[in-house]
Amino acid sequence: MTATGEPPVDLRAFHNEVAGHLLAAAAREEARAAAARFAAGLDWLPTAERAEVERRFAAEHLALARASWERTARRGEELRGEYEAVYRRLRARLLAGLLLGLALVVAVAVAVPAVG
């Protein structure tokens, strides 16, 4: 709690939420613009039908963008898992190497006085 009694603001979550809203708004605008460009070539259609074509085109454009974002997010999660596994293996190998080196130093320290 803050001094005013409100819970602390998670700025990273807030930033991600705002970025998500901005990205979605940009995608909607891009879909509308693409739909308008597409429908502009259909000047032989009545206005109401052209508006319906634009609406359906924009909806399909947004659906494709969403599917692409979901695939990208899934792949990011897969890569994160793969990289974390590699990191854990490297960390374990490093620890094993350090312990082996320490054991070697201790063995040499014990053996040198015994020789002398």
Description:
The chain contains two helices and no strands. With 116 residues, it is mainly alpha-helical. α1 packs antiparallel against α2. The radius of gyration is 30 Å and the shape is elongated. The relative contact order is 0.05.
Number of helices: 2
Q: In percent, how much strand structure appears in the residues? A: under 5%
String of helices and strands: HH
pLDDT < 50 stretches: none
What is the count of β-strands? Answer: 0
Instruction: Return the average pLDDT rounded to an integer.
Output: 91
Bin the helical content. over 70%
What structural class should be given to the helix and strand makeup? Answer: mainly alpha
Rg on CA atoms, Å: 30 Å
N-end to C-end Cα span? 66 Å
Largest sheet: none
Report the principal-axis shape: elongated
Features:
mainly alpha, 0% strand, 116 residues, 2 helices
Chain-wise SSE layout:
Blueprint: H1 11-40, H2 47-115
Helix pairs in contact: 1-2
Task: Give me a quick take on this structure.
The chain is mostly helical and 116 residues long.
